[in-house]
Amino acid sequence: MESRELSLYIRGLIPGDKKDADANRPVSVWKELDRLRGFPEKTVVCIFRTTGCAWYRFSACSMCGYFNDTSDNIIDENLFKQVDELYNSLGDARVVKIFTSGSFLDPREVSPSVRNYFFEKMKGKVDKILVESRTEYIRKDILEDIKRHNIPVRIAIGLESANDYIMKYSINKGSTLKKYLDAARLIKEEGFELRTYLLFKPPFISELSAIADVENSVKISAQYSNDISINPMNIQKNTLVEKLWKKGLYRPPRMISLARILIEMSGHKYPVLSYPTGGGKERGVHDDKFDKKLLDLIVKSSLEQNFSELKEYYSSLDLSLYNYELDLEDKLLLQTDYNTLVKRISRSSIFY
Ligand code: SF4
Q1: CATH code of the domain made up of 4-346
Q2: 280: left (phi over 0), alpha (psi -120 to 50) or beta
Q3: What is the pLDDT, as a whole number, of residue 348?
Q4: Please, are residues 231 and 319 in contact by the beta-carbon 8 Å criterion?
Q5: Which atom of ligand 1 lies nearest, measured to the CA of 171?
Q6: Mutate to test the pocket of ligand 1, among 7, 27, 61 (most ligand atoms within 8 A of CB)
Q7: Does 244 score more than 60 pLDDT?
Q8: Number of CB atoms found within 10 A of residue 44's CB
Q9: InterPro entries in the record, alphabetically (predicted)?
Q10: Pocket of ligand 1 (CB under 6 A)
Q11: Which pLDDT belongs to residue 242?
């Protein structure tokens, strides 16, 4: 499929009708642990409901279903109220992560007035903020405007892969490595911090190729990043990846592979971490048999940046079947998920 065809196909999967949602309230606010100040601590996470990512007007990334959380009619007044709700949920947490189903720095999604209101509200209450953005909004004028508020900010960019071919034909990111590198340099020049997101196992490539791709992307992005978050695929609704998965043409990555990447990349200058969404679940990173200890160790070692326990546990596992499956899949043209197909067929009514 040509890249334009792919983009249009993915665009066609975005549902036209949005479920009713309260425009004055964030999609969700919760607390979790992260290490944005270099140690694990309670962090408030807030997803603001906005009009969503600018890329949705043309297409979407092949794994992105965040459009499910957007609303077309959000105006500044709604976002002021959402900021107030976040403010009231802070408690004693000193660190905040903001997600928007798009880019916090896109002035059409979060206007300068809302952005300034947000930073003014956070002043004195929090010591570190993470916001996410596509590279096109990482502009000098916007960064200078944020700097006036004197709050340390880490900007997160979804590089996903340092391989432009994968970015274009597998992820449909609408971006390039060069755009990431330019944005990363500007972030550093302006005195901000950078978190780089990498996507582990986009569609159409084998798990072995995906491991190699993440490891190569870590090496390229490490010199610019304060930390690198490896996000294993989590299958979201109304996405290309979900369509492939339902047809048995995509299998989410294995947790053993994620552990392997973390162990192999843990000696880098900046922290490599992973807090998998949907870990152990059918739609998330999982092995054929759920290994809670492995998942817990992945999260614990990411938070503490100490991978010795994970290494020890990983070395104790019998990986012969895992290695066999990965080698076999790597030789196949289509990434067929035979295990899931067999399970689905055996559950289907044709046998009854
Ligand atoms: S850039 Fe981010 S929000 Fe926009 S479509 Fe891609 S993953 Fe989704």
Answers
A1: 3.20.20.70
A2: left
A3: 62
A4: no
A5: 6
A6: 61
A7: yes
A8: 21
A9: ELP3, Elp3/MiaA/NifB-like_rSAM, RaSEA, rSAM, rSAM_sf
A10: 53, 55, 60-61, 64, 66, 101-102, 134, 158
A11: 96
